[in-house]
Amino acid sequence: MHCSTPLLNAQVHSIHHLMTLLVVFKMLSLFFEGVMWFNIKSHGSPVGWNVLYYIFAFLKGTFLFVVVLLVGTGWSLLKVRAWVPFAQRAMKCFCFAFWLSGFLLLHAHASASALRSRS
Fold first, then answer.
1. 13, 39, 44, 76: least CB-packed within 10 angstroms?
2. Total domain count for the chain?
3. pLDDT by residue (tens digit) across 36-65?
4. What is the pTM of this model?
């Protein structure tokens, strides 16, 4: 029997591979942190395991920042394809709305700061 579900035929975007890598870095960071604390408890010093923990913690933080930045800019949401008639226009509208919301947020924050400084 052939099972055709949307889950099996789902397209994997490139951002999903980066998210998988982020989970792997998180897992390795936690593993090396556990080994580091185990060595501190048993030997009194981390004996080099702290370097591996710091490397993977740095990579985890960097990849988290990159993934959030890419998802926030719509990197995996809007892929411009030639066969979509209004893809270029949709991308321009999305980018304009994204930057406009950022500008309005900064303006509201600046206005609130100015009102607090007057008081």
1. 44
2. 2
3. 999 999 999 888 888 999 999 999 988 888
4. 0.56
